[in-house]
Amino acid sequence: MASVAELKAAIDIALQQIGDGQTAVQAASEKLAEAQQTLAGALEGSGHEMVEAAQASLTQASQELEECLAATLTAVEQAELYAANL
Length: 86
Description:
Helix 1 packs antiparallel against helix 2 (49-85). The protein is mostly helical. The longest helix has 39 residues, at 4-42. 88% of the residues lie in helices and 0% in strands. Keywords: Coiled coil.
């Protein structure tokens, strides 16, 4: 079995990896927002169902990225709480 110090070190590494993932998700979210604006500007006034479907898909992707970030925040809180109780 790993020592407390080893467990805490592993948790610290995992937290750094989560932070890296959060940064990537935030960057992806920003790029999706840019894409939505570009698409909206380029296709303004178009009522075509494919345009609406594309916008809806981008909105859904943005919402899922927000959910992903929220889940990682919960994971961080739980890992930090566990480490504090070791």
